[in-house]
Amino acid sequence: MKNISVIGSGTMGNGIAHVFAQHGYPVALLDVSQEKLDAAILTIDRNIARQVKKGMVREEEKPEILQRISTHKSLPEGLKEADLVIEAAFEDWEVKQALFREIDRYAPVKAILASNTSSISITKIAAVTARPQQVIGMHFMNPVPVMELVEVICGYATAQNVVQQVCELSRMIGKTPVEVTDYPGFVANRILMPMINEAIIALQEGVSGVSGIDSVMKLGMAHPMGPLQLADYIGLDVCLSILTILYEGFGNPKYAPSPLLVNMVKAGFLGVKSGEGFYTYSSNGKASGISERFKS
Ligand code: 3HC
């Protein structure tokens, strides 16, 4: 596989494009507006600069990496050369199914179609295409240039040679693939989201405050971020949507999203992206303190 098309230029999409371009692959990055694509290129530029500062990338490589990324607003144009398409669009079933019908229409017949979905069934996505054996999940973690894991999700019809090719490609870009089967939340979010939910329930019950709960997990379990800070980082709306998929998928009340999480999402307190969640954030995404609502 040589040519990679990435659909969606948000946090995950631009991170995925960055990593493939860094490892020598030509990337077609697609989104609906040139404004979004330009913002994504600026983000990639900034993140490569961080890698240059750390000595992970040589200064002279930076323009070469950026040159490997072309931007496109038209699906037929951005998919025409693709060997692998990675969809990293909005996490919504209606959006994904409409998009996969279009991707299936325009991507070359041999192309593998992957979704970076965090919890939507790969089998269900594959079923809207005419090539379910070539549809697979490639679940990258945020921030993509830093996190080593790619959760590779095999749908009911995914062919074994497709799984092998995707695992091999993941290694080529410096990641470690872990194969999992298509089950609600796969493995990463089935384990991560109940932990985040439990932290929110503990906060709601007054067992400890924001800083106390996060400190316990950082200092006691060596997590780089506490669960409440991580929830803000992922986006509280994303956490709620994944928990809802787990709750409905298993029909088990242990996955029921905490009422506090539901209320915060309803009120638009989504974490880093909205400027406030459990913490408050400045415009560059840095935490500036605990939200007033959780101070007492
Ligand atoms: N691009 C390139 N490099 C980046 C980067 C980016 N976007 N973000 C951070 N970095 C680098 C920094 O340059 C730095 O490099 P160094 O270790 O060589 O000095 C390193 O990463 C650490 O960054 P910072 O010093 O800015 O900040 P922190 O030390 O606080 O680390 C963090 C930031 C890497 C995000 C760390 O806090 C962390 O690992 N947090 C947990 C992240 C996590 O759990 N991600 C998974 C979320 S779940 C998910 O994605 C699944 C979805 O389905 C919900």
Describe this structure in words.
The chain has 296 residues and is α/β, with parallel strands linked by helices. The protein has 2 domains: 178 residues, Rossmann fold, CATH 3.40.50.720; 100 residues, N-(1-d-carboxylethyl)-l-norvaline Dehydrogenase, domain 2. 46% of the residues lie in helices and 15% in strands. The protein is built from 12 helices and 10 strands. An 8-stranded mixed beta sheet has the order 3-2-1-4-5-6-7-8, with helices on both faces. Strands 9-10 form a two-stranded antiparallel sheet. Helix 7 links the parallel strand 7 and strand 8. The longest helix has 20 residues. Bound molecules: 3-hydroxybutanoyl-coenzyme A (3HC). The site of 3-hydroxybutanoyl-coenzyme A (3HC) has 19 residues, from helix 2, helix 8 and helix 10.
Q: Helix count?
A: 12
SSE-based structural type: alpha/beta
Overall number of structural domains: 2
Q: What are the low-pLDDT stretches, counting only 5+ consecutive residues below 50? A: none
**What is the number of beta strands?**
10
CATH topology of the largest domain: Rossmann fold
